[in-house]
Amino acid sequence: MTNASYRKGYAIELLCKQKLQEMGFTVIRSSRSLTPVDLVAINPEKHEIWLIQCKKEDAPEDPKKLKEKFKDLLKLNTHYTIRTFAFMRAKGKYEFIELMREEESEKTTCVSDE
Q1: Cα separation of 66 and 84, whole Å?
Q2: Per-residue pLDDT tens for 16-65?
Q3: 48-57 burial by CB neighbour count: b if 16+ within 10 A, else e?
Q4: pLDDT tens per residue across span 56-103
Q5: d(CA 7, CA 83)
Q6: β-bridge pairing 84-90 and 48-52
Q7: Which residues make beta-bridge pairs with 44?
Q8: Percentages helix, strand, coil for the chain, rounded to the nearest 5?
Q9: Is 38 exposed, middle or buried (0-12, 13-18, 19+ CB in 10 A)?
């Protein structure tokens, strides 16, 4: 991707991010990720998470072509369990420490790759 092409794509991502924030979303941008997702938008009030791929070209009118173009993104459209973690040292080594709301549990749990 050329620098000019990157700047155009970046500008579209920023426009999208701004619109999402105006809608009440918290937005995370994945810079030069080379994944199907450019932006992750979280709306805690609506309990929604949007996975977004930003493109500067016009959308095809044919829904089949649109689905084909974004087939990798579409594969991610399913139900998930959301878990929250802090990644920090516990007893001298880095671990994922699961964070739970008070109504769920009074304790935290560590998740290790061991």
Answers
A1: 33
A2: 999 999 999 999 998 776 789 999 999 999 999 999 999 989 999 999 99
A3: eeebbbbeee
A4: 899 999 999 999 999 999 999 999 999 999 999 999 999 999 998 877
A5: 34
A6: unpaired
A7: none
A8: 25, 25, 45
A9: buried
Q: pTM of this prediction?
A: 0.79
- Dihedral angle computed from the Cα positions of residues 46, 15, 57 and 42, in that order, rounded to the nearest 10 degrees: -20
Give dist(CA 65, CA 68) in Å, integer. Answer: 5
Question: Domain segments of the chain: what residues?
Answer: 3-74, 83-114
**Nearest partner of 86 among 74, 97, 75, 76, judged by Cα:** 97
